[in-house]
Amino acid sequence: MRGALVRYRVMAYIVGVLLIILMCIGVPLDRFAHDDRLVSVAGVAHGWLYMILIITAVDLGRRVRWPWWRIIVIALAGTVPFVTFVAEHFATKDARLRIADFENEAGDDLPAGQPES
After folding, report:
1. Which residues touch 18 (CB under 8 Å, ≥6 apart)?
2. Which keywords describe this protein according to UniProt (predicted)?
3. What are the residue ranges spanned by the domains of the chain?
């Protein structure tokens, strides 16, 4: 579960930064300077990496047993500049709590005297 959380967080930051670059630098450059090079590169990169973000969000969500509405909201956050970081913060906070709960439940299931691995 921790690996899924790390993968999701990395993708959220990458997609969030690309979206900010695209919207705050690339689009104004395209509109005012008529230079679409950054929009072409950042737009394509954001689109492909956004698909990976969705996959990592679904993977994490299924592992920590989030309801589908939460996974959808987290996935949609990758389409609004700066909201990706807010969604990542709250998703990470909740996922860490759920992971700790799962680990505590797993630890309670060990026979007496059995060390945790």
Report:
1. 42, 45, 46, 49
2. Cell membrane, Membrane, Transmembrane, Transmembrane helix
3. 2-107
pLDDT tens figures, 56-77: 999 999 999 999 999 999 999 9
The DSSP secondary-structure symbol of 51 reads H
- Cα 27 from chain centroid (whole Å): 24
Q: 61 and 70 in contact (C-beta within 8 Å)?
A: yes
How far, in whole angstroms, is CA 5 from its chain's centroid? Answer: 8
User: Which tens digits make up the pLDDT trace of 93-111?
Assistant: 999 999 999 888 877 665 5
**What residue type is assigned to position 27 of the chain?**
V
Cα 103 from Cα 117, distance rounded (Å): 11
